[in-house]
Please model this.
Amino acid sequence: MDPLSTPVTAPPPRRRSGQSIAQTLRALRRAANLTLNELALRSGLAASTLSKIENDQMSPTYDTLLNLAEGLSIDISELVTGGRGVSVNGRKAVTRRGEGIVHKTPQYDYEMLCNDIANRQFVPLLAKVKANSLLQFDGLISHAGEEFVFVLDGQVELHTEFYSPTYLERGDCCYFDSTMGHALINPHDAPAQVLWVCSRVIAPLTEKLQPTGRQRE
Model:
């Protein structure tokens, strides 16, 4: 049979992380033989925050997911997909339109892309920016690494710890240090979507910069 004429079976639908992030976190924590307090200490988070996430009472922000992945010594893709990606030479991952892992927070709707590879050096995301004000954040977010934002649709404002707000329109982009407090907001009613690329967190949490005045979940 001609392989080009062989029908292609559609892959099963990707699960949406919001449906089982609580169960995934609990299973990973227990597999690592960690108590809530122990994981809280390793992640730099409050034990009460972990308890709320595991009981589906809180949707973790991307910053929180990074902290949890670091505390569990896993790749963030394992936390959001519930499975371990492939780690071999000559790797490639493809995500078809609309088939990424969706994770929703009050500030952003993330679609995490190319999650089939473990130990990636950067994490690509599509993000719908929903927050209209900094008042919707518990302070500016910071974590180890660097980030790149490219505006695909609409307009956004990048607020950072050391600079005045940067207004970005469709086609504009920005690269910045993630240890600097930051937040992205949508100043208009029209939808805004960005391609957001974050470098993999490899520095110990104890090396993070935590300027005075910022709060963390």
Q: What stands out?
A: The radius of gyration is 18 Å. Helices lie at 21-31, 36-43, 47-54, 62-72, 76-81.
